[in-house]
Write a structure and sequence with these properties.
seven-stranded mixed β-sheet, elongated, Rossmann fold, 2 domains, N-(1-d-carboxylethyl)-l-norvaline Dehydrogenase, domain 2, about 10% strand
C-alpha cells in the first residue's frame, strides 16, 4: 500500500519504519526537514496514498485536557488540498484524542473518510512495539473503511480489534490510565513498606511472580511517573477532564493520579 504520515515525531517515525519494513511505500509530511528523509507536501499524500496517518502531538492544556489543535489543523489542511475528482485516502488518526474527536472531524469534513488507530508505543522501544504489538485497534464508521485500514497490517501476528470510533478512542486512554494505576499501586506499597520497615522491592518481586499480575509498571524503586513524561500523565489528566465535561467525577482516577504522577 501507499501510506502517508503527517508528523514525524516518535510515533510517526515508528509507523514509517514499521510499514517500510513490511514492504509498504511510505511518504512523510512534516514541518521540519530531515537529511535522510524526503518530505512530501500534503497534496502529494492526498493524490497518491491509500491511507494517511495523522501522528501529530496532542499536548495537555493548562487545565489538563488534551489539546487537539494540531490534529484539527492537519486534517483541515489535508481536506483543503484534496482534488475532489481525484484520490480519496482514508485519514487515520493515530494521535491520542478524547472520544468524539474523530467523529466530529468526520462530520465537519464529510467528503473525507476517517478511522482511528491508536498507538501503544513505549518511547524507547517504539519501532519494536509497532512491529510486535499486543493488539491492533481500528475504529471506523463502517466495516469497509476498517477493513481497508486492516489491510495495512496483514502479516502482523496479533489480534486486530475492529470497533466504532468512540470506543477505539477510549481504549487508548483506558489502557494508559491502567498502567498509571499500576505505578500508583507500586508507589503506595513503597510508602507503607517504608513505615513498616520492609523492603518494598522484595515484596513486589514476589507479588509480580503471580501470572495474573505481571511485572510491568510495578517496580516500587522507580517511584512515580515524571510529570513531563509524554504519555501517561497527559492521557490520564485528559480522561479525567473529559469525564468531568460529561458530569462524571472519577475519584479513583484522581487518586491514582495524585499517587502515581510526580508532584509539581
Amino acid at each position: 500500500m501507499k501510506i502517508g504520515i503527517v508528523g514525524s515525531g516518535a510515533v510517526g517515525k515508528a509507523v514509517a519504519l514499521g510499514f517500510r519494513f513490511k514492504g509498504h511505500d511510505v511518504y512523510i509530511n512534516d514541518l521540519k526537514h530531515f537529511k535522510k528523509e524526503k518530505i512530501y507536501d500534503k497534496r502529494f499524500l492526498m493524490d497518491t496514498c491509500n491511507l494517511v496517518f495523522v501522528c501529530v502531538p496532542t499536548p495537555p492544556r493548562l487545565d489538563g485536557s488534551l489539546d487537539t489543535a494540531y490534529v484539527e489543523r492537519a486534517v483541515e489542511e489535508l481536506h483543503n488540498v484534496r482534488r475532489h475528482e481525484g484520490n480519496n485516502p482514508i485519514i487515520v488518526i493515530r494521535s491520542t484524542v478524547i472520544p468524539g474527536t474523530t467523529l466530529r472531524l468526520a462530520n465537519k469534513f464529510p467528503t473525507l473518510k476517517f478511522a482511528f488507530n491508536p498507538e501503544f508505543l513505549r518511547m524507547k522501544h517504539a519501532r519494536c512495539d509497532f512491529l510486535h504489538p499486543g493488539r491492533i485497534v481500528i475504529g471506523a464508521r463502517n466495516a469497509k473503511i476498517a477493513n481497508e485500514v486492516a489491510k495495512a497490517y496483514e502479516g502482523w501476528n496479533c489480534p486486530i480489534i475492529i470497533t466504532d470510533l468512540n470506543t477505539a478512542e477510549i481504549i487508548k486512554l483506558v489502557a494508559n490510565c491502567f498502567l498509571a494505576f499500576k505505578v500508583a499501586y507500586s508507589c503506595e506499597v513503597a510508602s507503607f513498606c517504608k513505615v513498616l520497615g520492609l523492603n518494598a522491592k522484595k515484596v513486589m518481586d514476589a507479588v509480580c511472580l503471580d501470572s495474573r499480575i505481571g511485572t510491568s509498571h510495578l517496580d516500587p524503586s522507580k517511584g512515580p511517573i515524571p510529570r513531563n513524561s509524554h504519555c501517561l500523565p497527559k492521557d490520564m489528566s485528559g480522561l479525567i477532564r473529559y469525564l468531568e465535561t460529561k458530569g462524571y467525577d472519577s475519584k479513583l482516577l484522581k487518586a491514582a493520579y495524585d499517587v502515581g504522577i510526580e508532584s509539581e
